[in-house]
Amino acid sequence: MHPTRANPFRPTFGVSPTILAGRDSLLESFTLGLAEGPGSPFRALLISGARGMGKTVMLNEFEDAAAAQGWVKLRVYPDSSMLDTLTNTTLPEAIRDQTGPGDKRMLTGVSISGIGQITTAADPDHSHPTPTLISRLRELATLLRQRASGILITLDELQSTDINHLHELATAVQDLLRDDFDIALVAAGLPEGVERLLQHEGTTFLRRAERIHLGEVDHADSVAMFLETTTAGGRRIDRDAAELAAHISVGYPYSMQLTGSLAWARATLDKTDHITTRQVESVRDEVIRRMGMQVHEPSLHSVPDGELTILYAIAELSDNGEMVATGDIAALMKVKPNALSVQRRQLLRRGLLTVPKYGYLNFVLPYMREHLLANPQHRPL
Ligand SMILES: Nc1ncnc2c1ncn2[C@@H]1O[C@H](COP(=O)(O)OP(=O)(O)OP(=O)(O)O)[C@@H](O)[C@H]1O
Ligand SMILES: [Mg+2]
């Protein structure tokens, strides 16, 4: 009577949700920007957002939108060989993919030396210098231009990127844009890291990039996500239960997936295809514990004691998640308010705190307060 159904919720970082909540207008702007031409501001995009706010998912969505217009996606990973991999592996593969099935057949089994042959074929006396990032991008963009499509480069974890690599990549993209090639660069990272990178010399192009800050999903969009995802998975959820799930996950995409996933599991154990408020309510504590393990612990990992003390003070003073006056924090710590300014600034840069109103502070991530209060052993003495 009750078939086991696959859980449609995806509480896993970097994995796209079954139903994407509340990012329609952003996706629409991006899609239009691709079709618009090299003059569109959406050709250089910087996405920032707190951990778990859906940055990687947004990059995946942008890639899909670009692929739907016939664009080629190139992923860049922020490691020490970032540009080397792009220039000597990713780009040659993409170029080979564009050179038609006939050529492909010819090249099977020749692999690396075959790739070398493509680029030197028109240059029998090897008088040209070795291909560079720019020359290979141009080669690919020229092939794509014949089909009226372009190149989308995505870079995740922007905060870990070497500034020199970023500079070189941005320069290459800018170079192609200046010659009216269809190319777009989208990078995503944590707010603190993005700000830090932009303060460097040599990031002028990126400073002019379109900035997108991913924030919480609206309550209505969140409720719709619970309803639609549950239906997509083959079950029903009460409207009240979807409202409660949206309330528990406070518009934070990762906790939305967690709440949905756990409520789904509860329904499976209860052998029902109908999720009720009782089931959603019963997983609330587990959502908070999982948030602690998967989100809070990692984000507190490298926070020094001086800053941790402030976070604990806020957790203690905050009344049910309400913002806390900086003066009250200082009073609790028995210091003058201006003695906290350095740590306060650091915590804002880390994306752990925000200033909801002048003179006040609050946590960025939902349930951080609960996590700290539940783990007093990590409080510095
Ligand atoms: N718009 C959305 N609607 C529903 N779920 C979403 C949405 N965006 C992201 N998610 C879900 O939220 C979780 C986190 O998404 P993602 O990995 O993209 O976050 P992130 O910002 O890249 O995090 P990190 O900073 O740790 O890299 C995933 O489980 C994903 O499925
Ligand atoms: Mg990510």
TrEMBL record:
Alphabetical list of InterPro entries matching this protein: AAA_16 (IPR041664), P-loop_NTPase (IPR027417)
Domain annotation Orc1-like AAA ATPase: ranges: 20-174
Domain of life: Bacteria
Signal peptide boundaries: none
PANTHER family documented for this protein: ATPASE DOMAIN-CONTAINING PROTEIN, DNA-BINDING PROTEIN-RELATED
Protein name per its UniProtKB record: Orc1-like AAA ATPase domain-containing protein
Classification of source organism: Bacteria, Bacillati, Actinomycetota, Actinomycetes, Mycobacteriales
